Amino acid sequence: MADATPEETAPYGGGPAATAAAPRKRIRTHTLQQMKDRGEKWTMLTAYEQFTAGIFDAAGVEVLLVGDSASNNVFGNETSLPVTVDELIPLVRAVARSAPHALVLADLPFGSYQASPEQAFHTAVRFMKEAGAHAVKLEGGVAMAPQVKLLTDAGIPVCAHIGFTPQAEHNLGGYRVQGRGDGAARLIEEAKALEAAGAFAIVMEMVPAPAAKAVTEALRIPTVGIGAGVDCDAQVLVWTDMLGINTGRVPRFVKKYADLHSIMLGAAQEYVSDVKGGAFPAAEHSFES
């Protein structure tokens, strides 16, 4: 009998490795491209700390985005604009440490990359070296192509973001759908420029579904929709919206998959009642001498 290869034999004589479940591999940018090529959809969710990162990773979410949305979902700001690189790096580090399979994508916050490709490079390097990010995301169209090219030439994967770009909300006149009418052609032009510069994927936010479909069909790389219809190659949501932590106004494109706010509120109210009424801690929660 020929010697078995390492791939054919389980450790410690446990029988053929094929009898065990295949280990999940780390998602890479080429994994996402292969999924598009096969016509398979993939998913992205935001995450800002270890527990949600671990849960979403175990659920099979392919990409975890540590978004600048942490500004108004973690730090209590009204918009995404105030959050800084120094505030986001610890969040990215926590997610990267807690997600063994998902690709961890770090948002470059407002003001940290727009000035020049060199500024973008130095910011992205911090997220890769100090936080363990696997890729970075930046907002903007044709004007950001030089930033994308320098980063990708330097070995830093970049996901671009077009359509409604929250960091430019004041310039865009607030939260408004982008790409209607003649704007659809401009979206395709921007997307193609970013693809040519080396972006591995492009997020489209608040874009009419027909325009998003046209962009998706025009590109080789994957598109990620958030309020951009069903024809994108992937979808992304902010987790506090889709799991019902956020009780404020949520965008039309959000589907709420749970009502965690009510669950957590009820549990906290029960805890308060138990403590005040003497029901907690009970004997089983206490130590004997």
CATH fold-level topology of the largest domain: TIM Barrel
Structural class: alpha/beta
Query: What is the H level of CATH, i.e. the homologous superfamily of the largest domain?
Result: Phosphoenolpyruvate-binding domains
In round numbers, the mean pLDDT is 92
What share of the residues does DSSP label as strand, in percent?
5-15%
Major sheet description: 8 strands, parallel, barrel
- Shape, per Cα inertia axes: globular
Low-confidence sequence ranges = 1-19
- Portion of residues in helices? 25-40%
Distance between the termini: 65 Å
- Please give the count of helices: 11
SS elements, strand count: 8
CATH architecture annotation of the largest domain? Alpha-Beta Barrel
Q: What is the CATH C-level name of the largest domain?
A: Alpha Beta
Tell me the number of structural domains.
2
- List SSEs in N-to-C order: HEHEHHEHEHEHHEHEEHH
- Strand adjacency order, main sheet: 1-2-3-4-5-6-7-8
GO cellular component, one term: cytoplasm
GO biological process, one term: methylation
Subunit structure: Homodecamer; pentamer of dimers.
Protein name: 3-methyl-2-oxobutanoate hydroxymethyltransferase
Feature tags:
eight-stranded parallel barrel; TIM Barrel; alpha/beta; 2 domains; 289 residues; 11 helices; 39% helix
Give an overview in words.
With 289 residues, the chain is α/β, with parallel strands linked by helices. It has two domains: 29-258, Phosphoenolpyruvate-binding domains (TIM Barrel), CATH 3.20.20.60; 260-288, no CATH class. The protein is 39% helix and 13% strand. The protein has eleven helices and eight strands. The protein has helices at 29-37, 50-59, 70-73, 85-98, 117-131, 145-153, 169-172, 183-197, 209-218, 239-242, 260-277; strands spanning 42-46, 63-66, 103-107, 135-139, 158-163, 201-205, 223-226, 234-237. The protein has an eight-stranded parallel barrel with strand order 1-2-3-4-5-6-7-8, surrounded by seven helices. Helix 9 (209-218) links the parallel strand 6 and strand 7. The longest helix has 18 residues, at 260-277. The relative contact order is 0.10. Homodecamer; pentamer of dimers. It catalyses: (6R)-5,10-methylene-5,6,7,8-tetrahydrofolate + 3-methyl-2-oxobutanoate + H2O = 2-dehydropantoate + (6S)-5,6,7,8-tetrahydrofolate. 3-methyl-2-oxobutanoate binds at residues 68-69, 107, 137. Residues 1-25 are annotated as: Disordered. Its EC number is 2.1.2.11.
